[in-house]
Amino acid sequence: MYTYAKLIDDINYLKKCGVEVSTIGKSELGQDIPYIHIGDYSKKQIIVIGAIHARENITALLVMKQAYELALEPSDFDGDVYFIPMLNPDGAILIEGNWDNFNTEKIDRAIEINNGSLDFSLWKANINGVDLNNNFDARFGQGRGQVHYPAPQGYMGEFAFCQKETENLMHFSLKVQPSLTISYHAKGREIYWEFSQKGERRNRDAKIARAAAKHLGYLRVDGDLGSSGGYKDWCIDTLKIPALTIEIIDDKHQHPLTNDLLDEDWEVNRGLIKRLKALI
User: Fold this and answer.
1) Nearest to 246 by CA among 115, 69, 78, 66
2) Among 4, 157, 218, 248, which residue has the least CB neighbours within 10 Å?
3) What is the pLDDT of residues 113-155, one digit of tens each?
4) Cα end-to-end distance, the chain, whole Å
5) Can you give the pTM of this predicted structure?
6) Which of 59, 72, 68, 69 has its CA nearest to residue 2?
7) What is the DSSP letter of 120?
8) DSSP 69-119
C-alpha cells in the first residue's frame, strides 16, 4: 500500500533534491495536500491528480512516479506540470487504519458511516463520508448513482465545494489556470473526456483523448455517461479546458489493489505527459 507517510517521505526527498514542492492547502483533518511543480512557469500548465478516492491510492504512486521521472531526469522535458499525488489524505489514513492521533469525533463518525466496521479497505470518500469526485460544481447532485447521505462512496455533500479538499483544489486550479488536467482513478483502463462540450472545443478535446488512448492502449469512452460533480467535469464546464479522467489497472482485479499491479500500467503511462503537452 502506498501510504500518506510514504508520500510525505517522497515529497521531502524531492525537496532535498531542489525540486519545488508545496501544498494546495489542508484536508478536513488538517493534513497537508502536497504538490510537486516541474517547469519554469513559461509554458502552458498541466495539473495531474491522484488518489481522489481513498481506495485508489495506487494512483498516488503512479502520479509520484511520473513526478520523479520528470523531476530527476528533466533534460528533455519542455513543459510545466503540477502533480498532486494524493488529494484525499484523510481517506488514506482511514484505509491504513492509522488514525490514533486524529480527531476522535470525526473518526468515530466515519466508523458509524462504515456500518461500525473498522475495515475501510473499500472506502472511497473523505473523512466526512463525502465522495470528493462528486463535490465539484458541475451539474452538482445530478449524477448517476449518487446518494444524498454520508456514505463510503457516492455522497456529493451538502453543496458544491463544501469540503476543504475540493475547495482548495478549486482555488488552486483557478490560480494556476491550467491548459489540461488529468485525474487518475482505478480501475478499468478507460479514458473519459466528455462533458457536453460542443463544436471546436469538442474537436480539440477529442484529439487529446485520442492521443492519450493511442499512447496508453486504453479504451476511449465517448459520452459523459451521466457524470456530474467530478473534477474533470468542472474543468471542462468552468475552465473550458480539456480534462481527462484516466482509469488505470485491468478491471479483472478487485479492490483493494496492491502496488505490484501497477507495473504494466506504469510502463504505458511513462511519457504520457510529454506526449500530451505538445497538443495543448
Assistant:
1) 66
2) 218
3) 999 999 999 999 999 999 999 999 999 999 888 999 999 999 9
4) 34
5) 0.97
6) 59
7) -
8) HHHHSGGG---EEEEE--S-HHHHHHHHT--TTS-HHHHHHHHHHTTT-S-
The residue type of 249 is I
Counted residue by residue, the chain has a size of: 280
> Which residues are CB-neighbours of 38 under 8 A, at least 6 positions away?
19, 20, 67, 70, 71, 74, 77, 79, 80, 81, 83
Q: For residues 188 and 249, is the Cβ–Cβ distance under 8 A?
A: yes
Q: Is 45 helix (H, G, I), strand (E, B) or coil?
A: strand
According to DSSP, the β-strands at 80-84 and 32-38 are: antiparallel
Which run of H or E residues covers position 40? none
- Residue (of 212, 219, 221) closest to 273 by Cα position: 212
Instruction: For strands 45-49 and 20-26, give the pairing.
Output: unpaired
Q: C-alpha cell of 87?
A: 488529494
What percent helix, strand, coil does the chain show, rounded to 5?
A: 40, 15, 45
Spatial distance between the Cα atoms of 181 and 195, rounded to a whole number of angstroms: 14
